[in-house]
Every structure is written in structure tokens, then in C-alpha cells.
Amino acid sequence: MNTVGTSPLAWAVKHLKIYLLDKEFQLISDHKPLEAIFGIRFKLCVHIERWVLWLHTYKYKGIHRPGKENIADAISRHCESIHLVPFDNENYINAVVEYSRPIAVPLNEIDIASASDKEIAGLKWSFRQQVG
């Protein structure tokens, strides 16, 4: 048994573990050799046996669904092939920081905008009345 079908499966469970812990879920795959992981016992290589042991910490039911019946398979076969840049955590974090950072506004612009705002002018007046 090769690791072609097991790698994405293990990756998905690992990255979605927050949502999968203590929940019953289904692992649906069109990769026929995964039946070894789904319950039918075969002699597995050590690498895959480790994944099987790790997956047993979850409450899942493994289901083999042939590619013709598996919607995910149809989508992967018929989508437009575009060149995607591999996901990079560092670049993602940099982009989030860049786009979520508030734009700095100089204090004098805040003073000018506050002076023309009726509500803020009213608040300033009432504070001055209470202090003075």
C-alpha cells in the first residue's frame, strides 16, 4: 500500500482536529487501498500503521466511495488548472498583519474632525461644565 491516499487523509484530520475531537465523522475516500485503514486488516508498512494508530483516537467511520460517485473527485478532475503558490504560513501571517493594520491618523486631523462634529463638541462642552 502506498502513501498517495493516506497523506491527504492524515493531513485533513490533523488540521481539522479541533472540530473532530469527540465527534463522530466519516472519512470518505475514493482510494481503494485505504480500506486497510478503514477496518479490513492487511499487513501495513510502519509509516501507515502509525497513522492507523493515531486515527484510532478519533471516532470515525471510513467509507470507500468510487471516484465516479465521489463529488470531491469530480471537482478535482474538472476544475480549471491554475498555477497556485504553495501555502506559506509566514507569507499568510504577513498579509494578515499588512491588511488588518489600522492606518495611522495624525492627531491634528483628529482634532480638526472632532471640532466639526456636533456630538463630540457637545461632549467637550459638558466635560468643561462639570470640571469648571
Q: Report Rg.
A: 28 Å
Q: How are helices and strands ordered from N to C? A: HHEHEHHHH
Number of helices: 7
Strand content: 5-15%
- Could you give the distance between the termini? 84 Å
Can you tell me the overall shape? elongated
Based on the structure, what is the oligomeric state of the protein chains? single chain
Overall mean pLDDT score?
Answer: 76
The overall number of domains is 2
The secondary-structure class comes to mainly alpha
- What is the number of beta strands? 2
Helix content: 40-55%
User: What does the main sheet amount to?
Assistant: 2 strands, parallel
How would you write the strand order of the largest sheet?
1-2
- Low-pLDDT sequence parts: none
Could you describe the 3D structure shown?
Helices cover 52% and strands 9% of the residues. Helix 3 links the parallel strand 1 and strand 2. 4% of the residues are buried. The chain contains seven helices and two strands. A two-stranded parallel ribbon has the order 1-2. The chain has two domains: 6-96; 105-131, no CATH class.
Characteristics:
2 domains
Write the layout of secondary structure elements.
Layout: H1 6-15, H2 17-20, E1 24-29, H3 46-55, E2 59-64, H4 71-78, H5 89-100, H6 107-116, H7 118-131
Parallel strand pairs: 1-2
Quick description:
The protein is mainly α and 132 residues long.
